[in-house]
Write a sequence for this structure.
């Protein structure tokens, strides 16, 4: 009797300290993230906001200049060019990618098709290729010269060669094609996962009611796919606004105005011109633009398809 | 009669679907094939109209030129070290943190978890410039640590591990191990880790691919050739004044092949991991 009592109390005691122990362990287990994020994430972000109001070349003293950096960026014509380039390439690269992704996913999901996994692997392969490699290969395909692959194809079709790398639309089409090629298969597979989650009974019921294929797509597929469409629009938008590798590889160190993007502009200001103040201001402006566009996305997503 | 037209209709739409998929598959693979064709041809063949569409005989010559232009194997080695070390570190830290969030009770748990999720929404460029100066202050410029250590921050990984551990590691097992006198770390190591191997595979593929293909950050902090990752080194190929496309695409092709081979071997796991990760988050 006495013995059971003591085991009970020790158990109670140890379970109490067990709780504290558990909490201590938990804090230790999650602390690496917060320590590292503090050093390499949070502090740099706060410091960016500070640096946006300073004049600094990276070596000497910082000097508070108020809103001058922002003024400088917002009156720089090249910044606006970089912004409009980014938005144009966002539209050119993203919208066809998502539409064709849905079509391909629909085709892959069709019950009639054999060798599905083979097609899946082929279509997904571009995503495994690094962005740098994609930009190099397509950069050579979109060569200005007659022997560039796309100019050869244009020649076959009876058109004149295009100066892809130096013309206003040429650069944008080339870069958007790189983005399109690398990501369309990835989005296809995501849509495919979404399509496979739609219960077959819905289609069967519609079939019985005599629905056409178009009606099935319009009233079953698209609404059921809506959360996944929103997800892909969201991620591809954020990715497009951060476009950097493809234009840097394609247009090189010249930072040609036809292809400069906001992140490229930021990179040039910071690491080529060593104007760290304006570069930080550009980073803050980019952040604000991303927030605005994401909010518009969320707003539209909530409106549509209600 | 109507059955006949019905089956005809099916076969036409079937044909159309096949055609669509064949074209898509062709366009997906062609640039990779073309890269190989260029990697085996002399620059003069490449720069003629029409260009070569079948492999040539310059495979070795082009690759020798690559090795003479950039430190190809050194860069591959650096990429491998950076990707492997970061991935292993992330698997360990994220599963440990995910385990704490899934199975332990502590003050501020929900708040801290939401805080981690919020960090996922911050665009990485926002802190780019100060990050560069922190690396300079730490004297990590041209040091692979500059990629590895910040790479260990992975909010998605913690989220992913927490979800997986919550639904796959039974509470009873954790409690039983504790009653048996296991320390908290033992519970993690002996009970949780063996169960979450599939989640490790997924996260490993996502992380490895991300680090292997990353470009902007390595470009900023790796300035000396001896520290280049393969992506940064590839850029050295196109920066030359003489553009030898055969050489450029040879380097690009051989830098792409390892990942493609791993992908083909593990394609099911790859596709599932990379897309599942996106959908779940």
């Amino acid at each position: 009797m006495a013995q059971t009592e003591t085991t009970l109390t020790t158990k109670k005691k140890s379970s109490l300290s067990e709780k504290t122990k558990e909490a201590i362990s938990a804090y230790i287990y999650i602390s690496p993230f917060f320590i590292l994020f503090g050093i390499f994430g949070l502090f740099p972000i706060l410091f960016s906001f500070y640096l946006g109001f300073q004049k600094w070349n990276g070596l000497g003293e910082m000097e508070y200049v108020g809103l001058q950096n922002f003024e400088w960026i917002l009156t720089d014509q090249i910044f606006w060019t970089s912004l409009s380039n980014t938005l144009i390439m966002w539209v050119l690269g993203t919208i066809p990618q998502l539409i064709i992704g849905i079509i391909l996913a629909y085709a892959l999901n069709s019950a009639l098709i054999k060798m599905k996994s083979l097609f899946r692997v082929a279509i997904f392969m571009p995503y495994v290729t690094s962005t740098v490699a994609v930009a190099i290969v397509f950069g050579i395909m979109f060569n200005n010269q007659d022997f560039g692959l796309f100019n050869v194809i244009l020649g076959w079709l009876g058109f004149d060669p295009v100066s892809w790398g130096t013309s206003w639309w040429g650069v944008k089409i080339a870069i958007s094609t790189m983005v399109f090629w690398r990501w369309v298969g990835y989005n296809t597979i995501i849509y495919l996962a979404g399509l496979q989650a739609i219960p077959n009974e819905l289609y069967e019921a519609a079939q019985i009611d005599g629905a056409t294929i178009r009606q099935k797509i319009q009233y079953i597929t698209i609404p059921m796919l809506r959360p996944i469409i929103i997800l892909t629009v969201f991620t591809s938008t954020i990715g497009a606004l951060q476009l950097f590798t493809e234009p840097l590889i394609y247009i090189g160190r010249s930072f040609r105005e036809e292809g400069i993007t906001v992140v490229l502009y930021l990179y040039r200001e910071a690491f080529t011109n060593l104007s760290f103040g304006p570069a930080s201001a550009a980073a803050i402006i980019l952040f604000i633009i991303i927030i605005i566009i994401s909010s518009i996305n969320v707003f539209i997503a909530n409106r549509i398809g209600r | 009669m109507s059955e006949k037209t019905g089956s005809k209709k099916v076969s036409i739409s079937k044909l159309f679907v096949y055609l669509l998929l064949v074209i898509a598959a062709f366009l997906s693979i062609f640039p990779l094939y073309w890269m190989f064709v260029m990697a085996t041809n002399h620059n003069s063949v490449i720069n003629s109209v029409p260009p070569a569409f079948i492999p040539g005989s310059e495979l070795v010559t082009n690759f020798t030129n690559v090795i003479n232009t950039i430190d190809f194997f050194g860069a591959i080695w650096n990429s491998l070290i950076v990707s492997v070390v970061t991935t292993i570190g992330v698997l360990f830290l994220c599963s440990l943190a995910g385990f704490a969030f899934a199975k332990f009770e502590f003050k501020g748990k929900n708040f801290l978890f939401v805080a981690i999720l919020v960090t996922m929404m911050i665009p990485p460029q926002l802190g780019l410039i100060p990050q560069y100066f922190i690396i300079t202050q730490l004297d990590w410029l041209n040091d692979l640590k500059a990629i590895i250590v910040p790479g260990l921050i992975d909010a998605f990984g913690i989220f992913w591990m927490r979800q997986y551990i919550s639904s796959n590691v039974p509470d009873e097992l954790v409690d039983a191990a504790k009653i048996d006198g296991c320390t908290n770390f033992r519970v993690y190591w002996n009970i949780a880790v063996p169960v979450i191997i599939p989640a490790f595979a997924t996260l490993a593929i996502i992380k490895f691919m991300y680090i292997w293909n990353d470009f902007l950050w390595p470009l900023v902090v790796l300035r000396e050739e001896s520290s280049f990752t393969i992506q940064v080194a590839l850029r050295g190929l196109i920066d030359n004044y003489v553009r030898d496309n055969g050489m450029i695409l040879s380097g690009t092709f051989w830098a792409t092949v390892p990942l493609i081979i791993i992908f083909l071997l593990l394609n099911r796991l790859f596709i599932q991991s990379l897309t599942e990760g996106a959908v779940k988050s």
